[in-house]
């Protein structure tokens, strides 16, 4: 897992009340990543998951039906 830092504003999340991890819709590449990790027994930060501070979490959670790249584009605009 990546250190918890908001993907949008780089705010560091000190405790879990500061925000949270959101999983977005899996793209084909995300499913490939999962399969690869399963095969090698590896762990890592899923490419379809990101941390968000409290401020951005509420917006981001509404977009988790989208792939992460599309959701981030909307959140940054
Ligand atoms: Zn933020």
Poorly predicted regions: none
Query: How many domains is the backbone divided into?
Result: 1
Q: Name the structural class.
A: alpha+beta
Strand order of the largest sheet: 1-2
Topology order in helix (H) and strand (E) letters: EHEHH
Instruction: Report the strand count.
Output: 2
Number of helices: 3
Which quaternary structure do these chains form? single chain
Question: What portion of residues belong to β-strands?
Answer: 5-15%
Task: Give the termini separation.
Answer: 26 Å
Return the average pLDDT rounded to an integer: 94
> What hetero molecules are bound to the protein chains?
zinc ion
Main beta sheet: 2 strands, antiparallel
> How would you sum up the global shape?
globular
Rg from Cα: 13 Å
Helix content: 25-40%
Helix and strand layout, with pairings?
Layout: E1 19-23, H1 28-40, E2 49-53, H2 54-61, H3 68-76
Antiparallel strand pairs: 1-2
This protein binds zinc ion.
Quick structural summary:
The protein has 77 residues and is an alpha+beta fold. 39% of the residues lie in helices and 13% in strands.
Give structural attributes.
single chain; 77 residues; alpha+beta; two-stranded antiparallel ribbon; 3 helices; 2 strands; 13% strand; globular; binds zinc ion
Describe the structure.
The radius of gyration is 13 Å and the shape is globular. The longest helix has 13 residues, at 28-40. The protein has three helices and two strands; from the N terminus they run E-H-E-H-H. It is α+β, with helices and mostly antiparallel strands. It has one domain. The model has no long low-confidence stretch (mean pLDDT 94). It binds zinc ion. Zinc ion is lined by residues 6, 8-9, 11, 52-53, 55-56.
């Amino acid at each position: 897992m990546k250190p918890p830092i908001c993907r949008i504003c780089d705010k560091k999340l000190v405790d879990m009340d500061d925000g949270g991890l959101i999983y977005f819709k899996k793209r084909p590449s995300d499913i490939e990543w999962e399969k690869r990790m399963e095969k090698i027994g590896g762990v890592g930060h899923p490419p379809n998951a990101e941390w968000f501070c409290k401020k951005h979490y509420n917006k981001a959670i509404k977009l988790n039906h989208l792939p992460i790249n599309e959701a981030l584009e909307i959140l940054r605009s």
